[in-house]
Amino acid sequence: MRKLLLTKASTFRLREKQEERGRLETLGEIQNGVKMTNQFKEDLFRLFFVEGKKYQEIADLLNISYSIVSSNYCKIKQQFSDDYLEVRRMKTIYSNKKSKQKKDFKFKDFSEFYDWLKKQGNTCHYCKTEQSKITKLIYEGLKNNPLGISSKRFNKRGRSLEIDRKDPLNAEYSIHNCVLACYFCNNDKSDIYSEKEYLENFKEALKERYKYINKKYSKLI
Ligand SMILES: [Zn+2]
Fold it and tell me: Are residues 201 and 121 part of one domain?
C-alpha cells in the first residue's frame, strides 16, 4: 500500500514536471533544451552588450547553438531595454574619456570600465549626495525655478556625477585612481587635494554640502 502511494506521488511529480516543461517551452523559456533562466539571460546580456562578443564566440563559451544565441539578441535587448540604454550611456562616457585622455586612460576595456562604474553607485564619493537629487535641482534651476540650483556652468556640467582622480598628481584614469564625484566636490577638490586630504580636511564642509542639497531637495518635492 505504502509503495503504491509513493509510486502515485512520483508519477504525479513527473507529470507536474512535464507540464511545467511544456508551459516553459510555450513561453519560450526553454529553447532547444536550454533553460532560459534569469542568470542565463543576464549572462547573454553581458556577452552581447558589455563584452561585445560575436555570436559564435558566445555559442562556444556557453556551449549552446549559434541559432539560440542569434535568435535571442533582439529579445534580450528588448527585455532589458533600460539596462541596454544604461550601457549605451556608459559607452559614450567611456569613448569620450578615452579619446580625451589618450595614454592616461588606463581602463583595460569597456567591460572593466562598466564594472567599475556599476560599483560606484549613484552617489558622490565625497559628500555622499545622490546624483538624482542634484540632477533634479539643476534641472529645475535651468527652468528658472527659484527652488532649484542655478548657474550658467550647468549648461555644460553638473547634471551627472563626474570622474575624479583620487590622486591628482597621478595622471592615470584607472580603476584604482578614479571615483565618481558631484560637480561641487570635483570643482572644490580641483587638482590640489588628494582623496585622503579632501575627505579629512573638509569633513565638516562635506557634511554641510550633503545637508544643503537635501534640504533644498526636500523643499522642491
Ligand atoms: Zn559631492
Answer: yes
What is the band of 4 on the pLDDT scale with cuts at 50, 70, 90?
Answer: low
Judgement on whether residues 164 and 202 belong to the same structural domain of the protein? yes
Q: How many domains does the chain have?
A: 2
Å from CA of 206 to ligand 1 middle = 7
Residue 18's pLDDT band (boundaries 50, 70, 90)? confident
CB 125 within 8 A of CB 179: yes
CA–CA separation, 108 and 33 (whole Å): 36
Q: How far is the CA of 188 from the centre of ligand 1 (A)?
A: 9
Q: Residues 129, 183: contact at Cβ < 8 Å?
A: no
Do 49 and 115 fall into the same domain?
Answer: no
Distance 156 CA to ligand 1 centre (A): 17
Same domain, 60 and 168: no
In angstroms, what is the span from residue 213 Cα to ligand 1's centroid?
Answer: 10
**How many whole angstroms from 7 Cα to the centroid of ligand 1?**
65
Which domain, by its residues, includes 133? Answer: 104-220
Answer yes or no: pTM beyond 0.70: yes
CA distance linking residue 147 with residue 141, whole number of Å: 7
